[in-house]
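cron nightly-structures :: item 1 of 1
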Amino acid sequence: MAQIPDADYRKRLEIERREKDAFFKEDPHSPIPWALREKFTGLAYYPPNPKYRLRVKLVRYPKPGPVVLATSKGVPRDMLKWGYFEFTIDGQARRLQAYKSLPQPGEREEDSLFVPFRDATSGKETYGAARYLDLPLSRTDEYVLDFNLAYNPYCAYSDDYVCPFPPRENWLDIRIEAGEKDFPLAAEKEKLAGAGPVGHSH
């Protein structure tokens, strides 16, 4: 896989982020409640940083075992523990588990790995519950673990969604200063949730 020149990579990332902002502001399927759309001026991110873009090999489990992830609404999410990635950032070696959705009857099998994680920025600069990475399945088990692409679950923007939490084995004790930060309108979101379905604060 050819290395993407740094300038091109940053440019591409910034374009993707602008497109996501436009989708979140305008699209009917955006997770941001209508009551907050007018105030919404864009998501907050760390600047692109190539240090957090790592070439890794998936260490696959010979027999992926079932695992149940807790979620924001208490509805358990069944997944398979597929393998793990080992990586080093700033001389610190760490490991993250990768999961795969169990296809529901009649559904096509998902062709991506799900890597939910928390780190030392969670609940401070970044969303407290988790951030997510989705990695397209690779036949060779070679992956790019790019924390610049870490994104918030939809629960960060609205309480209407069910979002899996990372198991404790995916809580990192290092700071991952890459990817999406906390929702800039988090305080307004909480007020909205407290107001109930009427949509005005008490």
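cron nightly-structures :: done
The radius of gyration is 18 Å.
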